[in-house]
Structure formats: structure tokens, C-alpha cells
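User: Could you write out the 3D structure of this protein bound to L-homoserine? I've included everything you need below.
Assistant: Certainly. Input first, then the structure.
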Amino acid sequence: MLTVRAPATSANLGSGFDVFGVALGTPADVVRVERAPETRISVTGAGSQYIPEDPEQNTVGAVADALDAPAHIKIDKGVRPSSGLGSSAASAAAAAVALNALYDRGLSRKELVPIAAEGEALVSGEAHADNVAPSLLGGFTVVTDDGVTQLDASIPVVACLPEMSVSTRDAREVVPDSAALEDVVDTVGNAATLTVGMTRDDPDLVGRGMEDAIVTPERTALIDGYDRVRDAALEAGATGVTVSGAGPGILAACHRPDQGAIAGAMIDAFDALGIESRAYQTRIGEGATLYRD
Ligand SMILES: Nc1ncnc2c1ncn2[C@@H]1O[C@H](COP(=O)(O)OP(=O)(O)OP(=O)(O)O)[C@@H](O)[C@H]1O
Ligand SMILES: N[C@@H](CCO)C(=O)O
């Protein structure tokens, strides 16, 4: 039996829609695999009641198919589904690493990115890799049609998850088909600022670069209380705030000493609207880890 822990991720970071992603220190999914004549899946943990065990409908089933690696696969969910924290991707990334090792396929982490992305195609209709890449590789990742670029980074963040769900499929429907040149120019500038910030591990530059005038405003309308939570986080010292992935999770970049106050302010702001939430005080962290039992 092999065990893999794969982290939650936050994609987009505002200015890098479908391009940027980061691995989070917590939460994470844990996947255990054992060789078997055909794939069988069981799911426990956060939100497991909403996750199908049918291999045709679970992201890990798509990965087992893509690697031609049938197995009994046990998923222990730490990342709640439809959270914006890359729940479906964490399972897919963990399964890709585990099955690659179980069947000695010899693929590198980068080569596993498109394989894990097959799972995303199953649930959201598109094989976007901006969550599976950081879950596999760790740090900050840039995904384009030409491949994946990875950079180690360790910016402190708060990921606040309200008790509501937004499916990636629905959140992709509100993305505009076109944008004004002025907004594109602003977003490119912000994306460049954020990237420099990551290379310097500078939370101020990263936060400044999280602004986006094209996709994020359309998506915030799907998250009750977004503006109040964002303002509360900024007042408590966040250097930047944006929707995590497709939402409803909200990501704040910050300096380490402000983390507790930001987490409290975000939870209180949701609470004032009658919405329960939890906040992960974490930092950009490592990719999937393989354990041999
Ligand atoms: N192993 C899995 N883990 C989580 N969700 C899964 C899994 N397999 C299938 N799903 C389905 O995927 C959907 C959740 O994926 P979705 O992309 O909407 O959320 P997410 O991964 O948390 O968000 P995001 O990609 O925005 O960060 C749910 O419908 C869920 O049933
Ligand atoms: N880039 C994708 C990620 C989903 O987590 C989106 O925002 O739709």
C-alpha cells in the first residue's frame, strides 16, 4: 500500500486567471492505493457525502484510467469539495503520484500534471491544470499551453472558507468572453508585480498584484458577503485579497504577525451576515508527499 498527502491549492490569485496557482500548507487530501484488477474508490472525510465513489465520476478514477493503473483507492478528504481550494485537484494529484509509484510508471511530477488534469476535465468540463500543478509541484506555479513553470515560495496566507458552495462549472459560466484593453493592461501589470513578489518572497508585492478587473468582479457576485470580508481582511492588515479559485473560498496574502487578526476579521465579517466560516492560517507550501507503508 502507498500513501500520498496532496495539498489544497489556490488558483488564479486574481490577476493570473487559469495561469497562476499556489500550494497551501493546509488543508490536504490523503490517498491510499493498492494494486487491484479493477478500480474501486472509497471516500471519507470533509464533504465526502457529496463525492461520488463511481470511478467514472471521481477525479481519481480518471487518473487511474489515464495511467492504466487499476487500484483500490481510499480517499480521506481534508479539502472540502466546491470550496475554491482545489478539492477535486488535491485528490487527483495525490492519486497521480501514488499510482505512478505503485505501477512504476517512472513519470516526473511535471509529466503527471496533464494526467492529473484529466480529473479536472471530468468535473468542470475543462482540463485546466492550475490547481493540479501546485498540488503536485508545490510553491507558485505558472501554467500555460507551453508547460508549467514552478517557483518555491513561502508567503503567509489566510484561506477563509464560508459554509456555502460554488461549483467551478457554474463559476466558469460567469467569466466574460472579452475584456477592454485597459483592463487587460492593468491585469498584465498586476500579474507581473505578483510574479516579482513571489521571486522575492515579498507579501506586499504579491498582495498588490492580486488585483484583477476582468474575472474576479463577476465571480464575487456569487459569494455572499465577499466585499465585507475583503474589506475586513484589508483593514486587519492583509496585503491583498481575492477569490480563491472559483470560490467561495477567499484568499488573503499577508505578513506573518497579522495572520491571526486577519483570520479573525474574516470569520467575524461572515458571522455578522449569519454565515459560518473557518480560516486556515497557513503559507505557500510543498507539493504532494509520498509515503511507503
Ligand atoms: N476526489 C474528489 N474530490 C473532490 N471532489 C470531487 C472528487 N471527484 C469528483 N468530485 C466532484 O467535483 C466537484 C468539486 O469540484 P470543484 O472543482 O467544483 O471544486 P473544488 O475542486 O473545491 O474547487 P476549485 O477547483 O475552484 O478550487 C464536486 O461536484 C465533486 O462531487
Ligand atoms: N482557474 C480555474 C480554477 C478553478 O479552481 C477557475 O477559476 O475556474
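The chain has two domains: 2-151+285-292, 156-283.
User: Perfect, thank you.
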